[in-house]
Amino acid sequence: MSRASVYLVIAFSIVCMSTSSIIIRYCTAPALIIALYRVVFTSIIAASLSRGEQDGFKQVSGWDYVYIVASGIFLALHLGFWITSLSYTSISSSVLFTNLQVIFVLIFSAWILKEKVNRWVTGGILTAMLGSLLIVQGDLQSGKLMGDMLALLSGLFVAMYFLLGRKVRARVGVWTYTSLAAFAAAIALLAGCQFAGLSLTGYPLLDWGLFLLQALAPGIGGHASLNWALKYLKAPVVSVSVLGESVGASLLAYIIFNEVLAWYQIIGGVFILTGIYIAATRENAGEKKS
Questions:
Q1: How far is it, in rounded angstroms, from Cα 81 to Cα 76?
Q2: pLDDT tens, 259-273?
Q3: How does pLDDT run across 128-187, given as a tens digit for each residue?
Q4: CA–CA separation, 1 and 175 (whole Å)
Q5: What's the sign of the alpha-carbon dihedral 192, 194, 198, 204?
Q6: Exposure b/e, 111-125, CB count within 10 A at least 16 = b
Q7: How far apart are CA 104 and CA 161, in angstroms?
Q8: Residues of the chain with pLDDT > 70: what percent?
Q9: Any idea where the domains of the chain sit in the sequence?
Q10: What is the pTM of this model?
C-alpha cells in the first residue's frame, strides 16, 4: 500500500468526521437516541464487512472480549456526552474540546503505562491547556461552559476507548473490532435510553436517514478508516489527523449555520491545535536510535 493512498484515505476520513456535528444538528431526536442508532447501524455495517477478514470473529480471545466490551462502554459515554454538548455550546468549541483526547491519551500513557514524557510533549500539553482555559473563560461569560465541560468529558472517554482499542487491534481485524465495540456501545446506550424513559421509535423519517448517515460517514468513513490507517502509519501521525476535524467542522458550521467564531475561540483554538500537534508528533523526540 503506497503512502499516497493511505494519506488519501486519511483525508477522506477527516471530511467524513467533519460532517458529524452538522448531521446531529439536523436531528430532532434526543442525544442518547442519536448515539444509540449510530452505533447500531455501525455495528451492522461493520459486521457485514468483517466477513472478508481472515478468521473474523474466531480471532477474538476471551480477554479480548473483556477489552472490547470496556471500549464499547467508553464509546457509548463519549457519544452520549459529546452529542449532548452540541445543545449547549458551539460546534467549534465542542469539537475542539473533544479533540483534546490526543492529550488525554498521552497523559494516560505516562500515568498508567509509565511511559516517559519529554519536554516537547509537556510543552504541547501545557499549550493545549492554555488554549482550553481561554475558551472556557470566554464561553463562561456567554453561558456555554456546561457544553464545553460535556465535550471535555467526551474527549476523556474516547481517549479510554482508543487506549483499550490499541490493545485489541494488534490481534483483531478492524471490522471485527469495530462491529463488536459498537455492539457493546449499543447495549450500554440502550440501557441509558431505557433508564431515561426515551422512546425507541416514533421519530421522523429524516431522523432515521440521518442515523444511518451518522454510521456511514463519521462512523465507518471516519473512525474505521483511521483504525485501518494505523496498520500503515505510526499512531501519532494518525492521531494528528483529528485536528482536521476541528477545522472542517468549524468551516461547515459557518457555511451552514452561520456560526461565527469569537476572538477567544480563534486564539484558543490555535493554541489547542498547536499543542496537540506538538505533543503528538514530538512524542518520541530525543529517543536514541538503536
A1: 9
A2: 888 888 889 889 888
A3: 888 888 888 887 777 888 998 999 999 899 888 888 887 787 788 888 889 999 999 999
A4: 19
A5: positive
A6: eeeeeebeebbeebb
A7: 11
A8: 90
A9: 3-281
A10: 0.85
